[in-house]
Design brief:
Elements (H helix, E strand, L loop, with lengths): L18 H49 L12 E4 L5 E4 L23 E3 L10 E3 L20 E2 L2 E2 L5 E11 L2 E6 L21 E9 L8 E10 L1
Parallel strand pairs: 3-4
Antiparallel strand pairs: 1-2, 3-7, 5-6, 7-8, 7-9, 9-10
Length: 230
């Protein structure tokens, strides 16, 4: 007697992910997440740098605005070459004069040469550091918190931390302002040319703004603004 053959039942294939497929999916997702994180960090750095550049340019232009109406050299003393008593000459009038002890006393552009306005600045003209940074009115720019309020310490406004405005004033050639001349340089008369006295040259004013991040040992230049005063 012959037995009827039973139809074979197909073997069910396992469903779901295999170990290799799971590993590949993990790798793909991980690479995607890393790319997103890196892009986000790059965006934050770019945005921060842009913000710092804008702040630095603002601080540099505040110095420019402050000095816009000032004469090149002291309106009373002027700029002159005087006898040094030893057969030579000494330049008088460049930089802060004897009676000028702070920003409120500055009455000409060359007073600003070599001066830095910063949070750690003091009212000591000798070392070239003054409190700052400052705005166009000579007021120290205060620190602002995340709520938009001025940061106070013992009832006193805390200056904007980490920022420095350094001012450089240079005498330049009137025919080529890229050429820097010595502060005491004069040009003698020649033929029809009457010459130029020590105080008759244009000056170039440069403001360098740096920002020192918390925890960093040195500041980084974020803005530089220069202009010529004829």
């Amino acid at each position: 007697m012959r037995h009827a053959l039973r139809p074979r039942t197909p073997i069910a294939r396992a469903t779901g992910f295999t170990l290799i497929e799971t590993a590949l999916a993990t790798v793909i997702i991980g690479v995607g997440l890393l790319a997103m994180i890196d892009a986000q960090q790059s965006f934050i750095k770019t945005n921060t740098w842009s913000s710092h550049t804008a702040s630095g340019t603002f601080l540099a232009n505040e110095i420019r605005e402050m000095t816009r109406m000032l004469p090149k050299h002291d309106p009373i003393v002027g700029l002159s070459l005087d006898d040094d008593g030893g057969g030579g000459t000494v330049l008088t009038g460049w930089g802060p004069n004897a009676a000028e002890f702070g920003l409120i006393d500055f009455d000409d552009i060359d007073d600003f040469d070599g001066i830095t306005f910063a949070y750690d600045g003091t009212a000591d003209i000798a070392d070239g550091d003054l409190p700052g940074p400052v705005n166009a009115f000579g007021e120290v720019v205060p620190q602002i918190d995340l709520n938009g309020s001025i940061v106070m310490d013992g009832g006193v406004e805390v200056p904007l931390d980490g920022w420095r405005q350094t001012v450089i004033v240079e005498k330049v050639d009137p025919f080529d302002t890229s050429v820097v001349l010595a502060d005491d340089y004069v040009e003698s008369a020649s033929g029809a040319f009457e010459g130029l006295g020590v105080g008759q040259f244009p000056v170039r004013v440069t403001v360098i703004v740096t920002y020192q991040r918390p925890g960093e040992l040195m500041g980084e230049e974020v803005a530089r603004v220069s202009w010529i005063v004829p």
